[in-house]
Amino acid sequence: MQLEEAKLKYIQTWGSLATSWGVNKTMAQVHALLLVSTKPLSAEDIMEALQISRGNVNMNVRALIDWGIVQKEFVVGERKEFFVADKDIWELFKQITKERKKREIEPVLRVLEELQQVDENSDEAAQFKQVLGDLSKVTTSVNNILDKAIKADEHWLLSNFTKVMKK
Amino acid sequence: MQLEEAKLKYIQTWGSLATSWGVNKTMAQVHALLLVSTKPLSAEDIMEALQISRGNVNMNVRALIDWGIVQKEFVVGERKEFFVADKDIWELFKQITKERKKREIEPVLRVLEELQQVDENSDEAAQFKQVLGDLSKVTTSVNNILDKAIKADEHWLLSNFTKVMKK
DNA sequence: TTAAACTTTCAATAATTATTGAAAATAAAA
DNA sequence: TTTTATTTTCAATAATTATTGAAAGTTTAA
Fold it and tell me: pLDDT > 90: what percent of chain A?
């Protein structure tokens, strides 16, 4: 397989994985493109490579910057902005984990807690609280694990876990 | 807060969490409804509770059954089908993990591996392979952890992990 | 200053995804 | 059988989400 072909296929694959996890396809593709690029890319470069509009590039690049996984970079002698993705995949993983945790898991935990405030004493209410409690317990545990992941270094995933898994 | 209000709010919350993780909102709501229901529900019950069409109920209930997190149940003297959700949240977590791993993570791992077959020797190709390799490494590790979770009992999440986290 | 280069915004539009509802299929009862 | 209850399917439609592109905004250089 040729390099260019492989790159394209990788960008496509990443885009469709993103879709099934609720991430905008183009955003994932822009990130994938920057990840396999050897040099910083301008908005124009991205427009051309992915055949998308200027507005679309702008929106998605900004979102990636907001997620903390893409940075602006200035190129000497060039007036326009260029963009690069951090090539450290472990950092990428941590950053995405951190953001999704903050944006999606934590707010749900807060709601689950709030809902425990049902002031009824029926069996049904008890059962409901039980379900909520179980849900909170599992969600909190997951949340804690992700916290640990965010703070840990790369070896945490590769070795520390392996130990636990072999038990 | 009253029980009914809390149940509704819970169903809504679960629906919106689902949306941001690429799961159909109605599917999550149907599941949430069954989870907090004290008795098996018929298609009609679900239609009424969530104000959705018969077809929609059918589609989503089947999807939930396909995911292994909802079961059919027969009620004596009733001709129609009823549905229940397993109330064991840990089982739910394991089942969802198992399915998403199988449907989404594993296929991507296969593509990443395939893409390593780039037959070029340039620096650029080397860098690309490096990125792919790193991506595979992290994805494989996550995949392994999820495997462990699927096989483990409830205490794995709650205690075994706590230990690791306190290190 | 002003003009040119570039970025951002956002209403209009397109693409995608979810939902309806009625007809067809299936299963149980008469 | 035939009738009736129930489930399934799927084309049409609605709702949601993503994308365009041109105008407005901003920055830099002359």
Answer: 87
Q: How far apart are CA B150 and CA B166, in angstroms?
A: 23
A89–chain B nearest CA distance, Å: 6
Place of tokens 């394991």: B94
- Residue range B25-61, pLDDT digits in tens: 999 999 999 999 999 999 999 999 999 999 999 999 9
Whole-number Å distance, CA A53 to C1' C12? 15
Same domain, A68 and A97: no
Average per-residue pLDDT for chain B: 92
List all nucleotides in chain D with at least one atom under 7 A from a protein Cβ.
Answer: 5-11, 17-22, 28-29
Nearest-by-CA chain A residue for B6: A115
Helix (H) / strand (E) containing A82: strand A82-85
Q: B73 to chain A, minimum CA–CA distance in Å?
A: 20
Residues of A in contact with B109 (CB under 8 A): none
Neighbour count for residue B48 (Cβ, 10 Å)? 12
In terms of domains, do A53 and A93 share one? no
Taking only the tens place, the pLDDT of each residue in A5-30 is 999 999 999 999 999 999 999 999 99
Query: Which of A23, A67, A89 would best serve as a mutation to test chain B binding (most B beta carbons within 10 A)?
Result: A89
Number of structural domains chain A divides into: 2
Residue of A nearest to B39 (CA): A124
- Beta-carbon contacts of residue A117 (< 8 Å; ≥ 6 apart): B1, B6
The last residue of a domain, from among B34, B51, B85: B85
Instruction: Identify whether residues B72 and B127 lie together within a single domain.
Output: no
Q: Other C-beta atoms within 10 Å of B54: how many? A: 11
Q: What is the pLDDT of residue A165?
A: 45
Task: Select from A34, A62, A85 the last residue of a domain.
Answer: A85
